[in-house]
């Protein structure tokens, strides 16, 4: 046997046994996004490297050390997207979607960051992104947060809290940055290597440090709130009043700065105490300067990104993921002629009973083996097609989830009979790959 290939570190397969939570999250999010007027956009996974340098910022972890960048065969400098906002803004500009218009867009897909892989932190991970372009807020800021709160409610996730801050305007932040540099320079000996590097590049980043040893010092640093310009202060106060009116609790965290440079004014993070160190499940903020910075006409904007792996894990812990779909019917087949008839019958039943899964026993096997597969599939009813049944123009119908015998049903009455039976039968059981994995574990 030849050597089997290993997956890339930090890049995961999402197996059928795990996909239920993902699909439910995606379904719930899509419906919620649409109900707030967001339209889906799909943008490329690869963009010019310059796009991310100019938007995320040169002195961020992402641009400094986490990007998957390469030259393609034509010599262009390209990067696998580490986040979605830059690409969406680029798309809005290059397709002329803005021109004074207001856009509500959402997007989903994989992002790539060369981080140290650990639980909840991967090198390929999925995000659901929401972006509102052309809205100055603070009404949209509150609405976007309400959208997040709605998602947690509909997904039955309770261990999620909202952290909120305002970064003010770039000018206000520049003044604050000077104070911060003075403070950290006075304590340079206490800085770790990352923070020392950030001190000369972008001192605000130090506040975003994930190193627990830095926490005590960061606690004593001056806070941005005191340097906010009056307009940003008013914006922040109004956002809080909107959230109060909506009944959405929040905690103001003056040290929440976010890891990307393009934010201004409102920033927020939904965090949980259920996932250990990787506690942010959804984060976002306002980026009023970004569109102009990327060559579009000045357009205020705000958005958030939700980490799909982390939310799916929360759903798993809360057992709030729906059970995966299982087939309702399993057709047991005896003989060559019945095989052809079974394939035909299955097509007829799929037409007649939309939404009901119909499996045909493929690859033969004696009745005992076929009934074992039928049971394992999770189906609620078996249909038996053998030579005898075909001669009589019937199928045998046998409930699988309770003690009951097999009875004949004329083929032309089968769909109606199945419908009424399924209305009464006990529920299906876990099936497919999930059950196969359980079988494997049981040995
Ligand atoms: P963190 O503080 O955990 O590094 P971040 O501030 O870098 O997160 P964003 O860039 O705002 O995160 O991305 C939005 C969301 O995407 C995060 O809240 C998180 O749920 C998720 N996320 C970010 N990086 C990763 C990763 N490497 N693996 C899995 N999920 C991630
Ligand atoms: Mg990060």
Tell me about this structure.
β3 and β4 (77-80) form a beta hairpin. The protein has two domains: 19-168 and 228-317, 2-Layer Sandwich (BirA Bifunctional Protein, domain 2), CATH 3.30.930; 329-442, Rossmann fold, CATH 3.40.50.800. 36% of the residues are buried. The protein is elongated, with a radius of gyration of 28 Å. α1 packs antiparallel against α5 (139-154) and α5 runs parallel beside α9. The protein contains 16 helices and 16 strands. The chain has 443 residues and is α+β, with helices and mostly antiparallel strands. The strands form three sheets. Strands 1-5-6-11-10-9-7-8 form an eight-stranded mixed β-sheet, sandwiched between helices. The chain has helices at residues 19-35, 49-56, 61-66, 85-94, 139-154, 170-186, 193-201, 215-220, 230-246, 290-293, 308-317, 336-352, 367-377, 387-392, 414-422, 432-442, and strands spanning 39-40, 46-48, 68-71, 77-80, 103-112, 124-133, 160-166, 251-252, 264-272, 280-286, 301-307, 329-333, 358-360, 381-385, 394-399, 407-410. 39% of the residues lie in helices and 20% in strands. The protein starts with 18 loop residues before the first helix and ends with a helix. Bound molecules: adenosine-5'-triphosphate and magnesium ion. The site of adenosine-5'-triphosphate has 18 residues, from β6, β10, β11 and α11.
